[in-house]
Write a structure and sequence with these properties.
This protein has 133 residues and is mostly helical. Helices cover 80% and strands 0% of the residues. α1 packs antiparallel against α2.
Length: 133
């Protein structure tokens, strides 16, 4: 009788394993896609950070470089240049913050998918469920 029950349950177990395999493939594909998006966001973030590092120079307390023709720089032009540099830094900071938030958002999307993959990979297979008789 017990063997009959196992014989009836065995096809169901294999069907469930096949469904688990299909689900694992879909989940893995989704995680890979999110990893690619996250990598692109991270690379963009690195570029923004590099631009920020390159544009960082003291704005105050340093004499403004004189124009190439040796004339004295116009005060208003120097103030405008400093203001533009500050605005550029702030824009780069906002862009970096937005990219970091996007990166973290993608990470949050991956977590439940990875948890499900973990569950499916630890789920007992058909032979484990049926026991040995």
């Amino acid at each position: 009788m017990r063997r009959l029950i196992y014989a009836l349950l065995l096809p169901l177990s294999f069907a469930a394993a096949a469904d688990n395999g299909t689900e694992l493939e879909r989940l893995s594909s989704a995680v890979n896609m999110l990893n690619q998006q996250q990598q692109a966001v991270y690379q963009h973030f690195q570029m923004v950070q590099e631009v920020r590092r390159g544009s960082v120079r003291p704005l105050y307390g340093m004499p403004a470089p004189s124009p190439p023709d040796g004339q004295i720089a116009n005060y208003d032009a120097v103030v405008a240049a400093q203001s533009e540099a500050i605005q550029r830094r702030e824009a780069l900071s906002r862009q970096a913050d937005a990219l970091l938030a996007k990166y973290n958002e993608i990470e949050a999307l991956k977590e439940p998918l990875q948890a499900r993959i973990y569950e499916l990979t630890l789920a007992p297979g058909p032979s484990d469920r049926l026991g040995g008789d």
